[in-house]
Amino acid sequence: FIHDAEEIRVGGIGHLAEFLAEVGPACRESYLPVLNEVPTQTSPRNWRLREVLAEQLPRLTQLFSAESAHSVLTPLCCDLLRDEVAQVRETTLLAIPSLLR
User: Fold this and answer.
1) What is the largest CA-CA distance in the chain?
2) Closest C-alpha among 86, 26, 82, 78 to residue 57
3) Would you give per-residue pLDDT tens digits along the chain (101 residues)?
4) C-alpha distances in Å from residue 60, one per residue of 6, 16, 57, 81, 95
5) How far apart are CA 92 and CA 79, in angstroms?
6) Closest to 51 in 3D by CA, of 75, 78, 85
7) What is the DSSP string of the chain?
């Protein structure tokens, strides 16, 4: 879905944590590389998709092991904290406490 129209990507990312909560841990872990692709595979002008991803981070950290959160979600969070759009950075800041669990 990462290469679909913007509305589909926003909807897919917006419900990603809900979906991943329903699948098994092995399947869930297979989605980690996809999460890292979202910021790099979208247009810099498509800040809304990055913001929706940032909104998902607190729930995503609860779904993955601490090791996975540290190795994938923390670098993703750091990238989003350096986003050029302030709204993305502000939304990402709200995810920091969940990463520090």
Assistant:
1) 35
2) 78
3) 455 577 788 888 899 999 999 999 989 988 888 888 888 777 788 899 999 999 999 999 999 888 888 899 999 999 999 999 999 999 999 999 988 87
4) 21, 8, 5, 17, 10
5) 10
6) 85
7) -TTS-HHHHHHHHHTHHHHHHHS-HHHHHTTHHHHHHHHHSS-TT-HHHHHHHHHHHHHHHHHS-HHHIIIIIHHHHHHHHT-SSHHHHHHHHTTHHHHT-
Rounded to two decimals, what is the model's pTM? 0.86
Q: How many CA atoms lie within 13 A of 4 on its CB side?
A: 10
